[in-house]
Write a structure and sequence with these properties.
The chain has 91 residues and is an all-alpha fold. The protein has helices spanning 2-26, 42-54, 59-89. The radius of gyration is 16 Å and the shape is elongated. The relative contact order is 0.21.
Length: 91
């Protein structure tokens, strides 16, 4: 159970930190660069396709693991984007 929490919170915190860093460094210039951390979604996508192609006895669990990692990356990016947007609106 602890391993699943680590698998979820690790990418979430990492993507959140990277999104906040990119948002802080760019601040209103190069606003499209905030999408950069979404590139990390390629890792779970490739991993889940690999598990699917590999097959095996419990391939569904491998795909589910990569989906959990992908969702945590997406949630970390959304939280970071929301926090960066809130800072831009404040005077």
């Amino acid at each position: 159970m602890e391993m699943l929490l680590l698998i979820f919170w690790g990418p979430l915190v990492g993507t959140l930190a990277l999104t906040l860093l990119v948002g802080r460094l760019t601040q209103r210039r190069f606003q499209r660069l905030i999408l950069f951390p979404l590139g990390f979604l390629a890792i779970p996508l490739a991993g889940s396709v690999y598990e699917w192609l590999l097959g095996g006895f419990f391939w569904e669990l491998g795909v589910l693991l990569w989906v959990i990692i992908g969702v945590s990356i997406l949630l970390g990016w959304l939280a970071g984007w929301r926090l960066c947007r809130g800072k831009e609106r404040a005077p």
